[in-house]
């Protein structure tokens, strides 16, 4: 039985990403064609779900990251490991600079798309914003 190669997996992944992108673009274009009430309901529901999930993932990530930092510090204090904090800080600074450079280079296109969507679908956007804050508050 032959196992799929990396090329097959890569093609499958690209197909899945393309399908998801096409679905999202179609859904977004269809939202503007619905009534204001439907846009408000869809916006509120999707905003609430997004806010709720964001808070759950955020809490999980914070606990994981915080716990690992605490464990590293305890291990360092007990002498199990020796941490070169200067080297870590230099690496973090380099990574942060790289992320900022990439983010500022690409953000206008993304931001303009978001603003265009918000202008064209104001009811959905208002519902999403309210639902997002309800989702954050309910988690």
Sequence of secondary-structure elements: HHHH
Task: Estimate the strand proportion.
Answer: under 5%
> What fraction, in percent, of the residue positions are helical?
over 70%
Radius of gyration from the CA trace? 22 Å
Largest sheet: none
* Number of helices, where a helix is a run of at least 4 consecutive DSSP H or I residues: 4
Number of strands: 0
Calculate the terminal CA-CA distance, rounded to whole Å: 47 Å
* Low-pLDDT sequence parts: none
**Average pLDDT, to the nearest integer?**
80
Q: What is the number of domains?
A: 1
Shape estimate? extended
Q: Structural class of the secondary structure composition?
A: mainly alpha
Main location: mitochondrion
Organism: Trichoplusia ni (Cabbage looper)
Family: Belongs to the FUN14 family.
Subcellular location: Mitochondrion outer membrane
Question: What tags apply to this protein structure?
Answer:
88% helix; mainly alpha; single chain
């Amino acid at each position: 039985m032959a196992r799929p190669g990396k090329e097959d997996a890569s093609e499958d992944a690209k197909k899945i990403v393309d399908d998801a992108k096409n679905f999202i673009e179609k859904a977004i274009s269809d939202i503007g064609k619905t009534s204001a009430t439907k846009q408000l309901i869809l916006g509120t529901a999707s905003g609430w779900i997004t806010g709720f999930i964001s808070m759950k993932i955020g809490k999980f990530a914070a606990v994981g990251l915080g716990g690992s930092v605490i464990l590293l510090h305890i291990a360092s204090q007990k002498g199990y490991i020796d941490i070169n904090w200067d080297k870590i800080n230099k690496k973090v600074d380099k990574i942060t600079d790289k992320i900022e450079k990439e983010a500022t280079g690409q953000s206008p296109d993304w931001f303009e798309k978001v603003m265009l969507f918000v202008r064209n679908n104001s009811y959905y956007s208002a519902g999403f914003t309210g639902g997002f804050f309800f989702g954050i508050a309910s988690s």
